[in-house]
Amino acid sequence: MEHASKIAQAKEFIDKQAKLYDAPVSERGNNFSGGQKQRLSITRGVIGSPKVLILDDSTSALDAKSEKLVKEALNKELDDTTTFIIAQKISSVIQADKILVLDKGKLVGVGSHKELLKENATYREIYDTQKGKEVTA
What we know:
Structural class: alpha+beta
Helix content: 40-55%
CATH topology of the largest domain: Rossmann fold
CATH architecture of the largest domain: 3-Layer(aba) Sandwich
Strand order of the largest sheet: 1-2
Largest sheet: 2 strands, parallel
Number of domains: 2
CATH class of the largest domain: Alpha Beta
Shape: elongated
Distance between the termini: 49 Å
Number of strands: 4
Mean pLDDT: 87
CATH superfamily of the largest domain: P-loop containing nucleotide triphosphate hydrolases
Strand content: 15-25%
Low-confidence stretches: none
Radius of gyration: 17 Å
């Protein structure tokens, strides 16, 4: 569990808990911040090095630095794990081998970040919006 908490960047705040890994969790995890709850969920997901890991908006409450550290640790430590990342932020999937772009529930693009930027208007629009650029039609 300690190794998993390191991967999820949760060890530091867990170590500050009086009972460490046996610390109580209040209803809905209200004694933890949104980012801490997400890191605890990632910790639970990576215990035992799963063959498949599904992360659904798992870093949305993390700052950019924490998100980067979590992604780097997941890539390094779970090399043999197939990971599906469901995200609204392109920064969460930019390094993925393959990105699937959905628009209103319909698959509108598949490829790497570079391929989609070049060939997919929907992906490019999302990217431009998230990078603070004005989107042109």
